[in-house]
Design goal:
This protein is α+β, with helices and mostly antiparallel strands. Helices cover 55% and strands 14% of the residues. The strands form two sheets. A seven-stranded mixed sheet has the order 3-2-5-6-4-1-9, with helices on both faces. The longest helix is centred in the last third of the chain and has 108 residues. The radius of gyration is 61 Å and the shape is rod-shaped. The mean pLDDT is 86.
Length: 361
């Protein structure tokens, strides 16, 4: 099981405008991204009650400016001309400390924790807290106490002490309470003190780790939100630059593609023209070949007719030779020339007295 930590932050409210801004933030009149207005009704508000002698729960956010001035008047405390107006004490704990089993905020635990913090702080500085607010509409519950840091002044200046010590004045001084040379030691002691108070109240909360242990650079929530806002702004600018760069690259790519398409289209047109020319030449050659084929076909027909005539003559001659060979009593077989030679030899023999002369027909 992981440890849960608690921390206490001290923020000076340097000017009355800072106090007014704190009032507006409590009243949720300023729209901020980290506040869920749908949950603002869950917030709890406290204001100093003279009869109770401490902070008491009220129904509406306090006007912190009025609360500061009213309590200072009640105490007879004064601000010198350049004094820090007041102090905001913020109590925060690990987010997991407030969540239940279903990871939602346990409001009952947050209320009990806030009451324990208020009790501890007012026990340490009774009557100096003028207002408080438990914020439950932000990411993590936290308690802000608005505090008058009182200091008894026994001198006009370092070199001019008051003649009558009984005439010491009660002043409001953030630096005397939390600052100057012992400021860091005081803040460190407060971290240990609040952790011990929480343990005594029954909450298992540990002191937050020291800066020298974590190496972290602590920032107030406002500074953290400003850093986040600056980071988001930078991310938006980087995104815009990247988007513009992508658009430029896309345009450049489109121009290159269009150039290539034009080049390819020109090549295709040239090839088409060449193919058309080749096709025209082929058609011409085909027509010429067709004409020559027609001539050849005509010649072939003539040759066939001549062949047929010759074949008829040969057949007629063959019949005549057969008749002559029969009349001559010659056996004429074999090729045409051998039969012709046999008939010629028979005729020659008859002419030389070897037999009756042949008289055709």
């Amino acid at each position: 099981m992981s440890k849960h930590f608690i921390a206490l932050r001290v923020r000076p409210l340097r000017k009355w405008s800072d106090v007014a801004a704190a009032t507006e933030h409590g009243q949720r009149t300023r729209r901020v991204d980290h506040v869920d207005l749908a949950r603002s009704h869950l917030n709890e508000h406290f204001e100093y009650d003279p009869e109770a002698g401490g902070l008491a729960k009220v129904g509406e956010p306090a006007d912190i400016t009025v609360a500061f001035r009213r309590r200072a008047e009640q105490l007879g405390a004064r601000w010198h001309k350049t004094a820090i107006v007041g102090t905001e004490i913020m109590f925060i704990a690990s987010p997991e400390f407030f969540t239940g089993g279903d990871s939602t905020c346990d409001l009952s635990r947050a209320h009990r924790w806030a009451e324990a913090c208020l009790k501890a702080w007012e026990g340490l500085f009774p009557g100096q807290s003028v207002a408080a607010r438990l914020d439950l509409d932000e990411t993590t519950p936290h308690l802000s106490i608005f505090f008058l840091p009182l200091h008894v002044r026994h001198y006009r200046s370092e070199t001019r002490r008051l003649k009558d010590p009984c005439s010491a004045r009660l002043t409001i001084s953030h630096n005397k309470t939390f600052g100057e040379a012992k400021g860091p030691d005081i803040l460190s002691m407060l971290q240990s003190w609040i952790a011990a108070e929480m343990q005594a109240a029954g909450f298992d909360l540990k002191r937050g780790l020291r800066v020298d242990e974590t190496g972290a650079t602590n920032k107030t929530p406002t500074a953290g939100r400003r850093a986040v806002a600056a980071a988001r702004q930078l991310a938006a600018e980087i995104e815009e630059i990247a988007r513009q760069d992508a658009a430029d690259r896309r345009l450049q790519t489109e121009l290159e593609i269009n150039s290539k398409l034009i080049e390819v289209s020109t090549t295709i047109d040239a090839v088409h023209e060449k193919l058309h020319a080749e096709d025209a030449r082929n058609r011409t050659v085909a027509e010429e070949l067709q004409g020559e084929r027609q001539v050849l076909d005509a010649e072939w027909m003539k040759l066939r007719e001549a062949q047929d005539k010759l074949l008829n003559r040969i057949q007629t001659l063959d019949r005549v030779m057969h008749d002559i060979a029969r009349e001559l009593g010659v056996t004429a077989t074999g090729t045409f020339w051998s039969r012709l030679k046999a008939i010629a030899d028979a005729i020659e023999e008859r002419r030389g007295g070897g037999g009756p002369a042949f008289r055709p027909g």
